[in-house]
Amino acid sequence: MNRLLQTYGAHYRALFTLGMPIVVGQLGVIILGFADTLMVGHHSTVELGAASFVNNMFNLCIIFSTGFSYGLTPVVGSFYGGRRFAEAGLSLRCSLVANTLVALLEMAVMTVLYLNLERLGQPDELIPLIKPYYLVLLVSLVFVMLFNAFKQFTDGITDTQTAMWILLGGNALNIVGNYVLIYGKCGFPELGLLGAGLSTLLSRIVMVVVFAWIVLRARRFRRYRVGLLRQRWSSVLFRRLNALGWPVGLQMGMETASFSLSIIMVGWLGTIALASHQIMLTISQFTFMMFYGMGAAVAVRVSNYHGVGDVQNVRRTANAGFHLILLMAVVLLSIVFACRYSVAGWFTDSAEVAALVPALFLPFLVYQFGDGLQITFANALRGIADVKPMMLMAFVAYFIVSLPVGYLFAFVLDWGLVGIWTAFPFGLTTAGVLFWLRFRSQTRVAPLARNQCQ
After folding, report:
1. Radius of gyration (Cα) for the chain, nearest Å?
2. Of 26, 131, 33, 24, which is closest to residue 347 (Cα–Cα)?
3. What is the C-alpha separation between 434 and 431, in angstroms, rounded?
4. Are 198 and 133 in contact (CB under 8 A)?
5. Relative to the CA of 375, which of 134, 232, 323, 365 has its CA 20 to 30 Å away?
């Protein structure tokens, strides 16, 4: 233990200091997810099933968007490590444009999906609830992407507290809006699931406006505004952000697709399965989002060391991050597992859902190791800008392994929803091992900077 602390102690402290504001911000997202599911579920179990379908479809877009915006992290991190502040600000401007274009592309794709909702085999009673909620979330995508650009910029310059406070404030606004619009309080009509969507849209707009105002007015960002507002447009930097962002977005999108496309199979099992799946996804975000907060800190620290060619500390940072994520997993899972029989009752009064949810906890526990492994080393690879190989690894893990295994367990072996969840550990652990092996091979070669343009 003493040797471990001597080797990694400084990295534990640095990652904890940098990562905890990100984790706290992610905790706000988790609380919002709980609040959404609680309020919608108690308003109507049918609306909870509709929310499950739509949220899973849009989670694919949002996770891809987040992954694409992560292309900014190693760029800004390297500029910040080299004290090239104006270029870091110019990177933000390029990222805002790139993220907006990607959001418009996502909106076009999701519009095509909207026009084909009836062909996806979902229960007929859900379609009238799905459609208006879907359209509101569709409009909000561009604001998600703009917020991501600002957040990755401030995270990359090690200012993780700004995004944390904006996230917490925006999520609080969203929860209040949910209460008012779902249940029809303060003179507003009772809108149910649609009210939850409108509240989400409003909070996302407000968060972008507040973030932009802070970056453009606060004194601590003055040295970055030279590049943000005055430097000439850089096509080279714009292309680099796209070269990094698309592979990361596709890798994270394929990971989420193993969950989001599974929702179509869950829909074949009926409304009760959809509602149970939504509750477990809400619980799973409790660990995933907090792991990803620490993973984001790993990417920032790795990119800082990568910018000055310090291979040893690149590897130590990644290893320290994995140690911390494993520790978080033990603590969080102990809490979650102890509540497994009461969780469903928090969200719905349905006895059928309450009977099904506890059976999903065993595969949920099993996949946490693989999830922590892939989160850590995916972020470490992003930090060294070695992102292209992750696309193929993710395709193998999530499309060749996870989805077919889920269909096999659920429908061939007739395990139902439990079978779909049992497949997730296979995909996540496969991805984690492949990312870990890639990171080890790349950081064994010196100088590390040769990998910068991969």
Report:
1. 21
2. 33
3. 5
4. no
5. 134
Of 391, 386, 390, nearest in space to 442 by CA: 386
Q: Are 156 and 300 in contact (CB under 8 A)?
A: yes
At a CB cut-off of 8 Å and minimum separation 6, what does 419 contact?
406, 408, 409, 410, 411, 413
Contact (CB, 8 A) for 437 and 378: no
- Residue 159 — φ and ψ, nearest 5°? -100, 80
Neighbours of 217 (CB within 10 A): 10
Which tokens is 214 given?
């802070």
Structure tokens at 365: 């526990």
- pTM equals 0.77
Query: Around Cβ 329, how many Cβ atoms within 10 Å?
Result: 18
Long-range (24+ apart) CB contacts under 8 A made by 11-18 are 11/301, 11/313, 11/316, 11/317, 11/320, 11/321, 12/320, 12/323, 12/324, 14/301, 15/294, 15/297, 15/298, 15/301, 15/317, 15/320, 15/321, 15/324, 16/324, 18/158, 18/160, 18/297, 18/300, 18/301
CA 314 – CA 307 distance, rounded (Å) = 10
Query: Residue 182 CA to chain centroid, in angstroms?
Result: 25
- CB of 281 within 8 A of CB of 259? yes
CB 42 within 8 A of CB 348: yes
Pick from 413, 283, 268: nearest CA to 358: 283
The H or E element that residue 220 is part of is none
**DSSP states of 21-57 as a string?**
HHHHHHHHHHHHHHHHHHHHHHH-HHHHHHHHHHHHH
Amino acid type, 117: L
> For every one of its 454 residues, what pLDDT tens digit does the chain have, with 9 covering 90 and above?
677 777 888 999 999 998 888 888 777 776 776 677 778 877 887 888 888 788 878 877 888 888 898 888 778 877 887 788 999 999 999 999 999 999 999 999 999 999 988 887 777 888 888 899 999 999 999 999 999 999 999 988 889 899 999 999 998 999 999 999 999 998 899 999 999 999 999 999 999 999 999 999 999 999 999 999 988 888 999 998 888 888 888 888 787 777 767 878 888 888 888 888 878 887 887 778 788 889 989 988 998 888 778 889 999 999 999 999 999 988 888 888 888 888 888 777 788 888 898 989 889 988 889 999 999 999 999 888 898 899 899 999 999 999 999 999 999 999 999 999 999 999 999 999 999 999 999 987 444 444 443 3
